[in-house]
Amino acid sequence: MKKQSIALIVDDEPDILELVEITLSRMDIITHTACNLAEARKRLACSDYDLCLTDMKLPDGNGLDLIKHIAADYPQIPVAMITAHGNMEAAITALKSGAFDFVSKPVDLLVLRKLVSTALKVKPKDKTNRERRSRDTLLGDSEVMRKIRNKITKLARSQAPVYISGASGSGKEMVARLIHDKGPRAEAPFIPVNCGAIPENLMESEFFGHKKGSFTGADSDKIGLFQAADGGTLFLDEVADLPLHMQVKLLRAIQEKSVRPIGAAQEIGIDVRILSATHKDLAVLVADNEFRQDLFYRINVIELNVPSLKERREDIPLLAEHFLNKISQQMQLEAPTLSDTALSSLQRYSFPGNVRELENILERALTLCENNQIEPEDLQLPSETETQATTQTEKPLDSYLDEQQKDAIQKALEQSKYNKTAAAKLLGISFRQLRYRLKKLGLD
Prior knowledge:
By secondary structure, this protein is of the alpha/beta class. The protein is built from 21 helices and 16 strands.
């Protein structure tokens, strides 16, 4: 038989205590109450609670003191703060102090039920298995990576917004996915969105949805990203690219926990955890009035910095082995080895494109190497000058070269009557290189 959950409710207002007690009892949750800090501490020492809800203002102190006490002595208990309506500063302070989430007065019962349901999923499972999954996903045995994995485990237990900073290609989305996957929302959607990739005139519709006929081209109702992520996590990648007018609308949606689709008469409640990231320095953009300070304050409750690859060079051998095995499996080839000199070349390289660039370099080297061993010349590492000169034109140039290669390969295949070995000879490349290019260009 499933054990009933027990919640501790701490508030000195009888009406609030009664409302929360009734709501939780209907969810088959046993409730204990306390009207001040001293009584709450006694209750905590005597019972094993699954959840705590506390008011901000208590007769003998501040609810923040209770949150800190629970975080220090009972870290397994998720605690939510009950705050005055519109007091976002108090809510953010609570989250920074270790609160799982917050709910505003007057208490919205639907919001409360969702919060409680999510909080009861927080209890840790097998720590060893969770750590193994983290290491398999976010590779690296360096001290900095061990610290990040530990922090991810802690952040996953909270519902606080997390701002993930770091250079392009460092793995910010992977970190966001891990925070989601290790938390109570793991079974719900994880919706990543590149804010810089949405045309400005479509942003409001993409984020909040629209009703049929609300504007020209709105042929049917559309669910926005917030609704698609309901119950789960919305990951705002490159959040710095949002125009100012959308920043205002985004802030309101996050604070009110509701959205209004274009053309809709009423707002729709949403239960979404917000994770955001950018390779830009948001603090500098705030100082330059290019990013709203209030939005920055709201999404940057906790910051997690993902280090660049050159800050953890000791992880390069492990990452290289992982990528070579992964790429070889995809191409159905035997994984090559890296010569000592090739590995030394990688460890000396600055990697402006970080982990993503390492994978691309190894993918190319795998097709160029002979005798199943990668040498320094197979890596084709650019000089720092070349890297800087090609950064801005790399994508258009790659697209152009891909089209040229497609044409050449297609002609060779036709000329050889689709004999791949003969086509490779006509092109002057190895069979292995041809297989790689066919797969990469979508010609296989």
